[in-house]
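Final report, Chapter 2: Outcomes

The project's central promise was a pipeline that accepts a single protein chain and returns its three-dimensional structure in a standardized token representation, suitable for archiving and comparison. That pipeline is now operational. To close this chapter, we reproduce one record exactly as it appears in the project archive, with the input sequence first and the structure output second.
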Amino acid sequence: MRAFPHFKQRWGWNLLWLQALLALAAVSVRPVAHHYIVFSEPARLLWSGQSPYGAIFSYGAGGFHYSPACAMLFFAPFAYFPERVGQFLYLSASLLIFAFGLTRWIRALKTELHWDFFSSPYRHLVCLMVASELVGSVLATKLEIAMLGLLFLCGAWLMERSRPVASGFLLFFLVTWKFQPLPVWGLVAVALARDRKALKTFLLGGLFLASPLCLLPFPFWSWHDSTVVWHDWLFHLSTYARNGWLDPIYQHLYVPLLRLVGVSVPFAYAQAVSVAVGISCAIAVFRLKSEQRQLQNLEKLLFAISLGSGYVVLFSPLSQSNAYLWYSPVLFGWVYFAEKNRVNKTAVWVALCAVFILVSLAYSDLCPRFLYHWLYPRGLKAVGGLLAVGMLCLSAFKTNAPKNA
């Protein structure tokens, strides 16, 4: 009976991992996912000295436009197993990384910011919101599971001020896989701007230790063959950025929102607006202040990681995808600042429920087809993400008037 109060306090947390394990079991009996093939076969091709760019893989899967380092490093250990076994090991490793990183992140919030997530009144709903996206990511065999786990671990190290060089290396290491975490890395650097020693060690780990990994496969191939692969990668990346990156942002973020206010923004302005929003995010991180000066740098780090993750979701193809797991740090930052700055609880509950409905009902592997055809064109998932980021910023910058004596 003693275990019951513990279960009652953490039933949302326990349900999160139960759903993840059930999703892993479901994937294990399904045919091998195309998304896994898109990474595992390029890993074998690259290590055998062949270019994967423009190739069509097994089961008709294709469209590899990620960096050579992405396939050659993380996916290589799993690529040489039989497909089902490799996929299971890859997802199991990803979930272990995510669980370890998230646990360390929550512990750092408690020890450094003196905020116990498991005592928060919103903890169960936040766990359910993360679970809904984690299940979709597992079913789609997304790389984002491992990436978010490493991001949480990096955030914990930064808050604990224990491994600044390793933090910079780890976060930029993710950038060598995909460029999506680059805004998070940049905002973290802005958050560290007033602490020159921490900033120098963070940049050392990223720019000088992790960035050489971008040069793969040059150390293993001839200069000519490596140059050909890099040319193929940059060509496919530029094509994807133009057709597969900016177009979804415009269609799923700008068009639905601007339609509500009757304003039209030409597609040519999409990139400029994204850059302007990114600069605004950097200014917001730099200007954030805390009532407790000893916590100011830590709160800036939390805000930078949360806001950067929200930017990654909204200003990338993830705005409508089943890789929406990236918005998990937004929820932790939002709830922390809402409690610290005593934001109206009713408003927080209503906003959290609205985000949950908009995000979880929109396109994912769990979404029924008839709902997909109605929800997807309206960009409701992006609207939910925008609401979450907006509430994060409002909660972080809310000031409380002093009480009358």
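Archive annotation: The CA atoms of residues 3 and 22 lie 23 Å apart.
This record, like all others produced under the grant, will remain available to the consortium after the project formally closes.
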